[in-house]
Amino acid sequence: MVSSIVWDVDPIILHIGSIELRWYGLMWGLGFLLAYDMVSRLFKKEHYPDTWADTLFMYCLISTVIGARLGHCLFYEWDYYSAHPIEILKIWNGGLASHGGVFAIILALIIYSKRVTHKSVWWLFDRMIPAVATVCFCIRFGNLMNSEIFGYPTSMPWGFEFVRSREWQQLYAGQGCHPTQIYEMIYCAAAFIVSWVMYHKYHLEKHVGLITGVSLLIFFGSRFGLEFLKNPQVASESGMLLNIGQLLSIPLILLGIYLIYRSKKVQE
Q: In angstroms, rounded to a whole number, what is the distance separating the alpha carbons of residues 140 and 192?
């Protein structure tokens, strides 16, 4: 019998009075701080104003949080939140969707590009992808520390028993499950490395949209495949040929293909 890994990590790092410091919140904050530092350094290297990075940080932070929250409420549990709209504001109770964050940040950065850089939004994303990958990596690490968003049971030796998860206890007690959080961390790391090399070694940012297009295929092509291993996030996904995460990934995969094709014609 293949043994699995017992994952028994406390999602709370420490208590300060009635305040809890959680891994998930810490990783969100750390991810955005690292991303800010990376983009700030890049803008300085290309001799753009220091204020660009500060303004961009606020656009990204606000749009990502609002978009991820609304994405979860609209895409995954609209029946509940449409009947209890005040609950949408209770972000501390959990419920964030990465696709919602992506759609929101694209919209926000279109506005940012028109107001600040006066360049194509894909010019901006080509420079931001390593930072975006860093934030996504940190968030998935937070999911792992929360023992949430894991996969179906597996006989592989790297299966995790998420003993602190009520969902795991109810459905899969005693069985190792795919640690899909780690799988997603891997493709985030891959997107980081590929986009970094494309920019810093091969200077492919000259082909506007190419780095973004390739990265979208890595992010959402991988996400599409991994969804086959994931436990349904909401009951309504049970029995679906393609789940909500896969359906939302398709337009972003198509966008990636379009940007790669378009980049042959668009250069700085």
A: 14
Q: Cβ(71)–Cβ(101) under 8 Å?
A: yes
Confidence of residue 41 (pLDDT cuts 50, 70, 90): very high
Strand partners for 177: 153, 160
What is the rounded CA–CA span in Å between residue 231 and residue 213?
28
β-bridge mates for residue 230, sequence order: 151
Q: pLDDT value at position 108?
A: 96
Q: Is residue 216 within 8 Å of residue 191, measured between CB atoms? A: no
pLDDT, tens digit (0-9, with 9 covering 90-100), for 184-220: 999 999 999 999 999 999 999 999 999 999 999 999 9
Q: Residue range 46-54: average pLDDT?
A: 95
pLDDT, tens digit, for every residue of 175-186? Answer: 999 999 999 999
Q: What is the CA radius of gyration of the chain?
A: 19
For residue 241, what are its two tokens? 């040929």
User: Which residue from 200, 214, 44, 212 is spatially nearest to 128, judged by alpha carbons?
Assistant: 212
Side-chain-side CA neighbours of 174 within 13 Å: the count stands at 1
Question: How many CA atoms within 13 Å lie on the side-chain side of 179?
Answer: 23
Pairing of strands 19-22, 5-7: unpaired
φ, ψ of residue 263 to 5 degrees: the values are: -65, -20
Q: Can you say how many angstroms the Cα of residue 111 is from the centroid of all Cα atoms in its chain?
A: 21
Dihedrals phi, psi of 19, to nearest 5 degrees:
-95, 135
Coil vs helix vs strand at 242: coil
Tokens for 262, please give them.
């378009």
Q: Pairing mode, if any, of strands 5-7 and 12-16? A: unpaired
In contact, 141 and 27? CB cutoff 8 Å: yes
The owner of tokens 């809890």 is: 20
